[in-house]
Amino acid sequence: MVATGRPSATAAPTTTTPPKVSIAKRIGLGGGLLLALGALAVLAFFSIALGSRSITIGTVFDAFFDPSAISPDLTVIRDMRVPRTLLAIAVGAALALGGTLLQGVARNPLADPGVMGINAGAALAIVTAIMLIGVQSAGGYVWFAFIGAGISTVLVYGLAATGREGATPVKLALAGAAVTAVFSSVTSAVVLANVDALNEMRFWQVGALSGRFMPVFWQLAPFLIAGSALALFAGRPLNTLALGDDVARALGQPVALTRSILFAIIAVLCGAATAAAGPIAFLGLMVPHIARFICGPDYRWILPYSALLGPVLLLACDITGRVVTAPGELQVGVVIGIVGAPAFIALARFRRLVQL
Amino acid sequence: MPEDPSGKVSLPLIVDRKTTPMRRRTVLSSLTALTAAALVLAGCGADAKDDASSAGGAWSYTAGDGKTYTADKTPTRIIAHAYAAKALMEFGIKPVGIYADGKVAEDVGLQGVDFTGIEILGEEWGKIDAEKAVTLAPDLIVADWWPAEGVYSGQEEGVEDSAKKLSELADVVGPAQGDSIVGVIEGYATLAKSLGADAAAIDSAKATFDEAVARFQAATAAKPNLTALAISPYDDVYAVAVPKYAPELLDFQKWGLKVIDPETPDPEFPYWESLSFENADKYQPDVLLFDDRNAPGGQEKLASQPIAANIKAYAAGAMTNWPAYWLHTYTDYTAQLDKLTTFIESADENTGE
Amino acid sequence: MTKTIEPTRSFRAHRRNRARWGLALSAGLTIAVAVVFILSMTFGSVTVAPIDVVLATIGSPTEKWHTFIIYELRLPRAVTAVVVGLALGASGAIFQRLLRNPLASPDFLGVSSGANVAVVAGFVLWNLTGYQLSLAAILGGFATAAAIYFLAGRGGISGYRFILVGIGVSALMASLTSYLLARATLNDARAAMTWLIGSVGMAKTSDIIALAIALAVLLPASAMLGKRLRVLELGDGTATALGANTRVDRALLMLAAVVLVALATAAAGPIAFVALMAGPIATRISGRADESIFRAAAVGALIVQFADLAAQHVLATPISTGIVTGFVGAPYIAWIIIRANRSGAA
């Protein structure tokens, strides 16, 4: 699993470079990726086919294969369900990759953009931009989200990583809880001061995918896709960092620079995801662990798996939220919380905490 | 009855001013016994007589709750719910303090009212500054009576406890909300007369209003097939108003406009049928009437939904606002009816299905 | 937490001094709570001079309307702030002393979040009211605390793993609350939501009475038990050797702490981090290891009183008390981390 080396000079790293992957295993892992892609396609289809309006399967296919056809059913599919599904895929990938990067950089299996307060920082920045500065479009406030996510990343990591022991999970979680508490207090105070905006904010604040259509997707897609693409290339530096700072340095890696770049990518991923769907916690925690369980400690494989499994999990939770309280809708953030919090507890309980 | 059409809630939800009241609530106990005796004019010794127009003399009024309230002199220091205040002021009775469900400057139902010299005790639903109210030493509190809940505006469940203490300062009275706005306005006219208003002015306002009703009826008679749908697009919900619980919509129906009765009102909250936007094309009226408390937010909300193009009336631009749950005066009703009359005269009966 | 006693002084003389100092401190804190209590009833949209507050409270008001303002409007809120603060401060101190961990507060132990969910569930699913809700809060607090205790595993509570588990459980409880609210009828959800915003201004009379009774019984009781806490703090082994029945003491103290925090939560909703801060602040004020539960309770009362004053009067729109304590408490946690960084023990 994760490398267990500690940043201090006294503790020797216990793992070496990830073992060379055999051809057979490589084919197996590649097949696994295809499988994940298949699962994603199936869930995406359900996400498009299910909803409060009942639409026949035939009509769903018409929406894609008969571009000339026009009807209210097709409007619902093409303009309402497809954008939502696309957004879910992009957000799922971004959050999962963000979580993977975070766990790799902080060398901490409990790191998560939600738990660490990064999403809360982005949320506060977005709320501030909308309510105090008057920014309206997603393409406008996403920049504020980056800044907010960046500030809270630096704050939380800085707070936790100073000191001899480095960023232990307890310190990271505590620092995250503290930063989340401050940011969400301020967010609440800002939102409460303006009742009109409260309506706009209240679904978004728990993490929701509903009511977001093509314009929002087009405004945020560039950041989500660019961030995800950059993250996918981070496998090699993450593998090196996993060996511990000293070894990484010895291998010629500029540790501080690498960390800074990776944190910047995390801020972009989490900021854009939060701008799209609100502050969603635990997705970035769970997915990397599932990926690691499948493919072992090599980040070059973990990253693509995360990129596919993140959307799978997010879509599954979103569909669940639509089904369990039908005809109403349970926000996807709530569903993920109910699934993800126990996962967090299990990790905290059963993983040896020293290995962080 | 301004209702929240949204059927869903999530954290952090606050009682919203547009959503206002959680009407249709459990019945609250009747007015608290008046403890602060020095602050109120107890109705001792006054004869309950109907003619109470003489200022300074004994006063009595039978309120919407069915009780007759009396005092040995006509109340002059009145605190009123903002809509009630507007109704009283139209008849020349000026309160000393008001409380509103939202920002007075923004409330569509309070446009053009001059509240100078009147203390504003609250601009958010459920919040009334009882401390300031005490210093005003009120001798009467005026608000709508909601028969379904058995409470006056400002005393509903969900209102802050401190705000409810207002009822300990003086009697709370007012006409009942019912199946017609006209009844509410007449109720306020009666109350205003008992408080010393000029009867002639009231009659002239009513005459003007009756003419507006006649014009409205003529317009609807000329378009017998015109159907209208009263809606409030809100959050993730396309809420369709149920006329049975909207007195002005009942009035419109009575005067010949075919306001569509939704098929399946929400079981929990029968003021609306909440549709998801995916099903927003369920009803295809000739014209759309938007809840004007949310204007222009409601239209913008619908515009942002791709399904809007499939609602024929929306696509044809056949839409206007409907004065939702706030009418309390002849003047307002006349103006709103005239606007709707003009709109109906230019509407196309064949837009919808 | 515990500082070593200077070896030069005789143990007895030290104890005498310490008792005197403690008494003086307790008196000072009591006076401070009383002063802020009166001050908090001074401000509002109408200012009532402190002397007039006192006169109105004892029944001879300067102006007749003072009575209404004080008794009907301001006194309930001021009393709630005090009793909620006392309860949170006391329970936090008990947990911290008992578990020998500065982070062992109901916020992290899951008691608060468990009480939260229980109240919402009781209200939404079973239409409970008044004292039934208080009871639900207590049960919820217990159940969650027990769950976290067992999940944290061997040696968990005295270590730091429970904090991680606690954060996870709190997140789960928050999600469950959202779920309950989504399933609830609109009216129920609305009412639950008003409470969840968390403010001492929301307390119902029944909540205040339940909490006041609990305080009257449990505060002296845990203070007495607390005197034996020092024995406990020597460690289980020593205490057992001394013949103290630590197991029963621990259980009783824990019971008292959970009841207090659950009732405080039932009364005012979630008010974060007060229990976490009160004990350590009391220790700071007294300048030495302070085992008085009463003083921690008084500090808790002061925190809530000030937080509520700030919540009501600092911004143009009043906000809830919990937002203020959340804002203040977080830097305190940051400080704990920084301190841990310096000492290298986290």
UniProtKB/TrEMBL annotation, chain A:
Keywords: Cell membrane, Membrane, Transmembrane, Transmembrane helix, Transport. It is found in: Cell membrane. The keyword Cell membrane applies. Gene3D superfamilies: ABC transporter involved in vitamin B12 uptake, BtuC. The keyword Transport applies. Coiled coil: none annotated. It is a multi-pass membrane protein. Belongs to the binding-protein-dependent transport system permease family. FecCD subfamily. This is Iron complex transport system permease protein. The lineage of its organism: Bacteria, Bacillati, Actinomycetota, Actinomycetes, Micromonosporales.
UniProtKB/TrEMBL annotation, chain C:
One of its GO terms (biological process) is siderophore-iron import into cell. It comes from Phytomonospora endophytica. This is Iron complex transport system permease protein. InterPro entries: ABC_BtuC-like, ABC_transptr_permease_BtuC. It is found in: Cell membrane. It comes from the Bacteria. Its main location: membrane. The chain crosses the membrane at residues 21-43, 75-95, 107-126, 132-152, 159-181, 193-219, 252-281, 318-338. It holds the Pfam family FecCD. One of its GO terms (molecular function) is transmembrane transporter activity. Belongs to the binding-protein-dependent transport system permease family. FecCD subfamily. Keywords: Cell membrane, Membrane, Transmembrane, Transmembrane helix, Transport. It is a multi-pass membrane protein. GO terms for cellular component: plasma membrane.
